[in-house]
């Protein structure tokens, strides 16, 4: 089967850099295309001339560009990754759509406003473009397994959920909100307040958030200062047990209550929830996107899922600004968020 001609726009961290000194662990778009037998990485694009040349040499790419306009003018691409600032996403998606692209792997958040996110989805739908948003935990089967455990009520009725994140409500929060929706369903409202633990990006603050789902489950999201270390966890407390998830390592444990005591029941030893994968989540996301292009099916992390994650980010920011609960879903608006 003919390989898809692919390019990466934005050779920064997730585009190319995370694979430096990580020869056996693929964490980037460029590395994923390079390793996939169904894709041919034919071009890289970045404003930084030194950066684009460095990674062109690493990935044996002969075509480099400093302009997306020139890239789409000169290359007949099947698929492109957009790993640039969130404020540029709509413009580049428009250029890609006009070039006849078949698939877009778009970094999260989907856009910097709800209105622009909806335009991105409309463009992709109109032009029959497969759109994948890089919410990577959707690509890891351990979270599908955890959802099954929760749906089967293996830990009983959920009492409460605690989550921990840092580095900005849009940057890291985007991943967290998408996974919470995947596991627990749609959200009724969010209420946020300022955190004493600051984000390194002043334009993308940390917020402490109370989130209520339509099923009345409550999640409390606690922000942390990532200056010295990162903790990105979800703890789910049920009537019959506890699930703890490490979203950095993609690992989880399950502890059920012991029936040995008739007074205060205690949790048994934690058991590891296992789900081995031969490829990293971003590689699996690319594989799903390629299958979507070739089989004309919806991607796992499609544009509508990305829009709903963005709505929660915007709602959290608006809740902080207005000092009140913000109900979901949100109407069209141009409130702008910032992310790396």
Descriptive notes:
- The structure is a single chain.
- The protein has 340 residues and is α/β, with parallel strands linked by helices.
- The protein has 2 domains: 4-137 and 281-302, 3-Layer(aba) Sandwich (Rossmann fold); 140-273, 2-Layer Sandwich (Dihydrodipicolinate Reductase, domain 2), CATH 3.30.360.
- The chain is built from 9 helices and 15 strands.
- The protein has helices spanning 29-35, 49-58, 68-74, 89-98, 114-126, 141-151, 173-184, 281-295, 303-322; strands at 4-9, 39-45, 63-65, 79-82, 103-106, 130-133, 158-166, 187-194, 207-213, 218-224, 233-238, 241-246, 251-256, 271-273, 326-327.
- The strands form 2 sheets. Strands 14-13-12-11-7-10-9-8-15 form a 9-stranded mixed beta sheet. It has a 6-stranded parallel beta sheet with strand order 3-2-1-4-5-6, sandwiched between helices.
- Helix 4 (89-98) runs parallel beside helix 5 (114-126).
- It starts with a strand and ends in a 13-residue tail after the last strand.
Topology, pairings included?
Elements: E1 4-9, H1 29-35, E2 39-45, H2 49-58, E3 63-65, H3 68-74, E4 79-82, H4 89-98, E5 103-106, H5 114-126, E6 130-133, H6 141-151, E7 158-166, H7 173-184, E8 187-194, E9 207-213, E10 218-224, E11 233-238, E12 241-246, E13 251-256, E14 271-273, H8 281-295, H9 303-322, E15 326-327
Parallel strand pairs: 1-2, 1-4, 2-3, 4-5, 5-6, 7-10
Antiparallel strand pairs: 7-11, 8-9, 8-15, 9-10, 11-12, 12-13, 13-14
Helix pairs in contact: 4-5, 5-9, 6-7, 7-9
């Amino acid at each position: 089967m003919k390989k898809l001609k692919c390019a990466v726009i934005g050779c920064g961290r997730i585009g190319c850099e995370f694979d430096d000194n990580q020869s056996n662990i693929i964490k980037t778009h460029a590395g994923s295309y390079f390793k996939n037998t169904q894709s041919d990485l034919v071009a890289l694009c970045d404003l930084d001339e030194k950066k684009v040349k460095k990674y062109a040499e690493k990935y044996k790419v002969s075509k480099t560009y400093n302009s997306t306009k020139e890239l789409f003018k000169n290359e007949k691409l099947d698929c492109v990754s957009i790993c640039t600032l969130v404020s540029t996403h709509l413009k580049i998606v428009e250029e890609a759509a006009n070039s006849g692209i078949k698939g877009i792997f778009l970094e999260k958040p989907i856009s910097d406003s709800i209105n622009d996110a909806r335009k991105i989805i409309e463009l992709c739908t109109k032009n029959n473009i497969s759109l994948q948003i890089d919410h990577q935990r959707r690509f890891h089967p351990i979270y599908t397994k955890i959802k099954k455990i929760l749906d089967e009520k293996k830990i009983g009725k959920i009492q409460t959920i605690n989550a921990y994140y840092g580095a900005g409500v849009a940057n890291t929060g985007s991943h967290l909100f998408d996974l919470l929706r995947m596991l627990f369903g749609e959200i009724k409202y969010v209420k946020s307040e300022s955190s004493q633990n600051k984000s390194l990006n002043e334009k993308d603050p940390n917020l402490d958030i109370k989130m209520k789902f339509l099923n009345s489950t409550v999640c409390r999201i606690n922000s942390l200062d990532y200056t010295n270390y990162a903790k990105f966890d979800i703890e789910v407390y049920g009537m019959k047990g506890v699930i703890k998830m490490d979203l950095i390592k993609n690992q989880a444990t399950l502890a059920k209550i012991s029936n040995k005591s008739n007074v205060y029941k205690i949790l048994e030893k934690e058991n590891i929830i296992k789900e081995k994968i031969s490829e990293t989540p971003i590689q699996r996301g690319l594989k799903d996107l390629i299958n979507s292009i070739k089989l004309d099916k919806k991607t796992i992390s499609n544009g509508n899922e990305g829009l709903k994650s963005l709505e929660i980010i915007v709602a959290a920011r608006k809740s902080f600004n207005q000092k009140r609960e913000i109900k979901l879903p949100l109407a069209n608006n141009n409130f702008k968020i910032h992310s790396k």
